[in-house]
Every structure is written in C-alpha cells, then in structure tokens.
Write a structure and sequence with these properties.
By secondary structure, the protein is an alpha/beta fold. It has helices spanning about 40-45, 50-60, 100-105, 125-140, 155-170, 185-190, 205-215, 230-235, 235-245, 260-275, 295-300, 325-335, 345-360, 365-380, 400-410, 430-440, and strands at about 5-10, 15-20, 35-40, 95-100, 110-115, 150, 170-175, 195-200, 220, 250-255, 285-290, 340-345, 390-395.
Amino acid sequence: MSYRAWFQCINPECGQTYPLNSIVYQCKRCDSLLEVQHDLKALKRRSAASWKKLFEKRYMSNEWPYGSGVWGKKEWILPEIADDNIVSLYEGGTNLFWAERFAKVLGLNDLWIKLCGNTHSGSFKDLGMTVLVSQVKQMISEGAPIKAVVCASTGDTSAALATYCAAAGIQSIVLLPRGKISIAQLIQPISNGALVLYLDTDFDGCMRLVQEITKDETLYLANSMNSLRVEGQKTVGVEIVQQFDWKAPDVIIIPGGNLGNVSALGKGLMMMKDLGLISKLPRIVVAQAERANPLYRAYLRNFETFKPIHARKTLASAIQIGNPVSIQKAIRTLKQFNGIVEQATEEELANAAALGDRTGMFNCPHTGVALAVLIKLLKAGKIDKSERVVVISTAHGLKFVEMKVKYHQRKLDFPCRHVNQPIELPARLDAVKDALHKALKKRIRFDV
C-alpha cells in the first residue's frame, strides 16, 4: 500500500506545502513553521487492529530497520524513504520504569517513568535525529548539495546529531554555549567527530547564529524548527501506549525547553486517536525550570500573549531556553490536550531528582523538574492520586554527575534534603562496626 508525507505550513490561513526533500525550514510564503503531514486517508485504509499487529510484530525485532522503536512505525514517519538510506542505532524501545517506591512516598497509586535516556547517545533526542539524518542521507543520494548538518544545542541535540552523522559518514557541526553544558555533553560530539564551535553566548545566541549560517543550503539545519525531528520524537507517545497494551495513561509530564518534544508527543498521540488506536487522550503537563519559564508565563496569561525572556542559569541546563522555537506548536498541543504548565525552582528540582535517585532512579536535572512538578500538582489537587501518570525522563543521569556531586557535597545554594555523603574512616574493624551500628540505627525517611 502506498503512503506519502510532505511539509505543510502550520498557519491555517496559508497551508503551503513542500516536498520532504526540500531544503526548507519555514514557510517561504508567510515565515510560519512547517510540520510533516501524512496522508491519513491512505493510512485509515488499514484498520487499527492491523496497525497494532504490525507494530507488535516489528517491536524490538532483528528485522532491519523495523526493530527500531522509530522505524518500526516507518509508515507513520517517513513512508517513502529507502531502507538503504535509514541511519538507525536501534533507538527507542526504552523501558517504562514502575516507580513504585517513589509513588508510595507521594501517595500515588500508578506512576511510571519513561527512561528515554536509556538510548544510544543518552537522551530522547536520538528519536528525532535518526529521522533527520536518514532524510539527509536520502537527499544527498538524490544530488542535494548538503556538505554538513548543523545545530545549536544545550548538549543533548549535539550529542545525538554527532552520533548519527558519524554513523552515516556525514559531517556534523555543533554550536554550543561555553560553560553552560556538562563536560559529558561537551565530550560526546567531540568524540564523534563533530566540528565543535564553543561560543561565548547562551543557547538563544547559538540558535540565532545557526539560523543565519544555514541560509547556505550546503549547511542543513538540525534544530527542532526542522520538523523532520518531530516525526521521530512523536514515537515516544506511541511507544508508551503500546507498552500499556494500547491504553493511554491519564497524564504525561514532560520537561519543556525549546518545546519541540511537547508538540511531538502530542502529534503521536493525536495520530493514534485519528487512526482509531486509542479512544481517549491523556492530559499533557509541561514542566519548566523557574529560571527558564517563558511557556509557564504565557500559560498564566491563558496563552493570550507570548514574550521571550532571558533565561537565567539553571541546573536544568538543557532547558535553559528563553525563546523556544516551537512555542506556537506547543501552545496548540496544550490546548488540544487540556494541558497544564507548571514550574520548579532550583531547590525543588534538585531535591526531587535526589529523592527519585533514592528510590531506584538516576535522574538528570530535567527529569527532576518533571518530578518536582508532579509533586506540586499532586499537592494542589490538579492530578488525582488514582490516575495513571507517566513522567518522561529525557536524558541519562550520567551526563550530569557534576550536579549530583555538588548536591551531595552540599555545594548548592539551598538546603539539600536528601544528601548521602560517604563516611570517612580509618581501615579498622572496630571503626567500621561502630559506623555501621550508628548508621543502621537511624530510621531512613523520605520527605517531599
């Protein structure tokens, strides 16, 4: 059966379309963002039950490239791409962690953490980058003049881009804000052969420069204003539902920075509903750091206006963004999904991340933002304790060990409530026994 997809302007008064092999990121007629549209009429010719059966057959299999959590849904992603041009590292397929102990601390019955950091480059960005780099490889094979793929990044996007470009044999270029990402995030693109430009600015400054240099069509833009990435990232919602035996949860909480992930999550879920795989939509909650909260501020104004801000330094460095590119798509998604936006302070996000770690997780600070928002919304009665809640963990905690070290050494600017410091002792049996006796007498208690 033949399926097809294309770029289309998100402005309903415009609706201009472009082929997916066009080097285009915004509508040439009205400057609005684009999105990938699919021929839903053709997709609906296959029943919901048949789609489920096909996706189940492929899921985590060894059939190239369909064992990938993304490419197992190829017909919903890039239906016309040649399999030989797909660049996949078997992304997706990440586990849902049943956060039983953390849930009990909160009095919540059914809490799950979608561990998107358990993937090749250590973040959910792999889901989108496999699609973008695959399309670039296809375009180069068709004669496109692309010499390199370029992104601005707060760390995870650059890691994913460099990884997939290295696998494809395509040059990557990344612009990073100096001193505003972790060492682990800096070394990833360096190790994978990217040309790294380390700039004295913040992410928004890097993004402005990337938009200028990619006016040269030999340099292809890989940031989330390129809607190809959304097509891969939307599979996180599809995969969550699939892992729940094709039942949607009640609430999904996702950290928000540049906000491409928010619209991607909504797009995947809406596609499932349109094609009859689910009958209800979950509520989507976007969690922002208080120091980088432009969407939260717009939410307080009922989205009547949006104003970019200067994002201040936050432990949640990957979402330290004051002028998110995908703001309009995110607002549209939140309106469709009865959405909520909430913020977390530095103290709240650090303590929530540490509390999660004490119950079996190993959280990045952005997951800490989402967990802190979950705690706040439960206390406010905006999430019911009987609801099934999924928190999307966007990256692996090993990328942010400096933050964790500072937390447990009490070197942050607030009380660290869940500190766990090593006990320094002489190497004597009596000293060890005495320390064990004192430590094990204490009752371990977690407070939120």
